[in-house]
Amino acid sequence: MRSEQFFRLRTEYADSPLGIDLTAPLFSWQGPKARIVVRRGETVVWDSGKLVESPVCYRGKALRPRTAYCWELTGEGGGSASSGFETGLMGDYSGSRWISDPSLHGAWKRMNPVSKFVKWFDRPEKPVRIRLYATALGAWSGTFNGVPIGDGIMLPGWTEYASRVLYHTFDLTAGAESGANRLEILLGDGWFSGTMAKRQGMPGSGPESSIYGFHPYLRAALMLDYSDGRSEVIGTDRSWLCSCKGPYEYSDIYTGESFRADRPWEEFHPAADEYLPRDVRYAVPDEQERLPGAEIVSANGAPVVRCVEVRKPVSRVKRPSGEWILDFGQNFTGRERCIFRAPAGTKIHLRHGEMLQNDGSLYAANLRRAKAETWYVSNGKAEPYEPLFTFFGFRYLEVSGCDDFTIEARVLTSDMEQTSRFECSNPLLNRFSENVRWGQRSNFFDIPTDCPQRDERLGWMGDAQIFIPTALYQQNGAGFFRKWLADVDLCRTLSGEYPAVVPPVWGRGTTDRGRDMCGQAGWGDAGFICPYTCYLFYGDVRFFTDRFDVMLRAFRGMMSRAEDFICKDAIFGDWLNLDDPTSPELLATAYACRDARIMILAARKLRRPELGYLRQMEAALRKAYQKRFFNRKGELLEVSQTARAITLAFGLAPRRSIARTAAQLDRAIRENGVHLTTGFLGTPCLLRALSDNGFLETAYALLEQTTYPSWLYPVTCGATTIWERWNSFRDGQFGDVSMNSFNHYAYGAAMEWLYAVAAGIRPDTDDPGFRKVLLDPRPGGSLQWLKAEYDSPAGRIKSAWKRLPSGKVEYTFTVPAGVKAFFRGRRELQEGETTLTE
Hints:
Elements: E1 7-11, E2 26-30, E3 35-40, E4 43-47, E5 56-57, E6 68-74, E7 80-86, E8 99-100, E9 115-123, E10 129-137, E11 139-144, E12 147-148, E13 164-171, E14 179-188, H1 190-193, E15 217-225, E16 231-235, E17 241-243, E18 248-252, E19 256-260, E20 281-282, E21 284-285, E22 295-298, E23 305-311, E24 315-318, E25 324-340, E26 347-353, E27 355-356, E28 362-363, E29 373-377, E30 384-385, E31 392-400, E32 405-414, E33 420-424, H2 427-443, E34 444-445, E35 447-448, H3 461-474, H4 478-490, H5 512-516, H6 526-538, H7 542-545, H8 548-561, H9 584-606, H10 611-629, H11 641-649, H12 658-671, H13 683-691, H14 696-703, H15 713-716, E36 729-730, E37 733-734, H16 751-758, E38 761-763, E39 772-775, E40 785-792, E41 795-803, E42 809-815, E43 820-823, E44 827-829, E45 832-837
Parallel strand pairs: 13-22, 19-29, 39-43
Antiparallel strand pairs: 1-2, 2-5, 3-4, 3-6, 6-7, 8-21, 9-14, 9-17, 10-13, 10-15, 11-12, 11-14, 15-16, 17-20, 18-19, 23-32, 24-25, 25-30, 25-31, 25-32, 26-29, 26-31, 27-28, 33-40, 34-35, 36-37, 38-39, 40-41, 41-42, 42-45, 43-44
Helix pairs in contact: 3-6, 3-16, 4-6, 8-9, 9-10, 11-12, 11-13, 13-14
């Protein structure tokens, strides 16, 4: 009898979310098929009427705004479970206005001080329900009657502001008082109007320009519901008071923060104008300013940035020059929380870095123009302090100006469930696995960034598509990528090309650099590969339905630029390869063929009439590729490791050439001392190209290599994250400071091979979402044992193997309820634990 337990009931991949604005939200759970019933109070608004598999979209009566709903699962044997969600404003944000601080208007500033906005309201009757719907063009943080509003950081996050901005929903009912209530919101530049947006020194910009705006804006609606059925809206308008004359001189993503504890906020008074302090003003509504045409939409359960861990220093050393160096033992994204015990007026300086120089001093040259520093002026009191609207990538913290302090580090990331565990007999691979996890944690900061420390921190598309299979094994990234991919779709050029960076910082393909960076192989292809990978992992067909036409237009544009079905757009090439380049034509045509296959799968799933056209294009691209890059003997003409790996991994070699191409790749690697030479595009393909074509032991040898260049060389150097370059640090010397991040997840894409091949846990492309799982582990290398777990959307899957003294291998698998699992693609495994030997 199959189990009828249900776990992880989610609406839009979130646990009982508030503020859902979708007309047909997605319900998902771990467990077998179930009947689903959705209720509004006691009223049934949808009954599936039959057993359905997770995930499933709502198909009932129209959902009402600001309404609570409950949904219940009932299995065939009577088992049940329930969850709920609450709808948001459903497009009606009319109860509020965009407001800003008039003190920030006028002269152009590279950074603005943080402003405080305050609204009082006095009601004799305590509301029975209060919801806050808040957003900003900038970043905000608030309190209600002195209690923090949620625990999100840098809200509302970064989107393509010209098209949309997110709002978040908060339940403030418990903090309400009968009588006077105070809502207070701090507003900073964030991504909208700080140094990231002020484009001074960036290509194609003037000295006083901005990508988005020159100062931040706030918009919020406080909804009060009373016991007699009345409702009231208190929205941002000209009645809100504001001031920028407080302790925050600036709080900026690249620069850091300057905080004057000796200059507190003036007390705001809720009375008439004559009682206003000198530096307090009434907010200015939006009719006096020009704003982007951003649509205000709900975050719909997308994960927000939170503090997920607090770290204490593992060492604290005072240098001869007087500054302190604190080592937190791990490179990460976050910020410090401090208590300084110093006389009033003491100026304290903190700098952040990923590495130390050979003399023990802080290494910060790789930050480029990002100062990444904190200035703190003491008021003589030992008070907790933490920077507000900034974040840093660091392991080491330099402190000067004070000797008596307590400092801890707060790790910040988009808060997503960890969904995998990995361990094997090689401790260096275990450390590599942790480094990959920390790289993802550090760079999944509202969007998938390239690095968290220097003057970049951008949503590079190439990095994202390279890493996404590993990312989805390690964390539940469905909501995270749903949010980011919506901006990917919005940021295309007028001709439909995907940009290289989302949100774009060089305009939407309007500048020369913006145009040149659009539609480039390996980067623009994220618009195809990321939705496909999310569909494969989660079985959520909306990753295709929401954007099929967008993808089709981008694909047609790609084909229009091809010459005889050979594409050429690959200005980034095989980024950071080791003097082993691959032609733009090979890379661009290979990716175009892969995109065509993704489009064929999507068209077949959606029953689109373009299926025939897409099949013709795929066949023509494949034929052109083989004609251009293979000679008559069936030999691949390009000899780089990347050319061979991509050709094999993308299935582009003629059948008669597969074995020869794989043997050539194996020989090239071994002649190079079992070292790789691949860059960003070739590296994710390398291990699979070998193991799928008879060279499993070479794949293991390459992965377990410890000398330069290799995946494990940084581990032997003490790395705690993935480096941007194979030679970021070598023989005691730092790599090129112009581009040398020590927290750059791209090369961590090899972790996908450990889950999918070494542990053998793979989804079935014909039955996505791990409802059907292929268990095909491939023991090899020096490993004596391996264990892996993946909390798939369908339940927790376990795969383990160990070598026996007899020379055989013992396999142990755990299959969750409702999942079909096949060992080696043939033998079906039963629910629960199974042990096999071969």
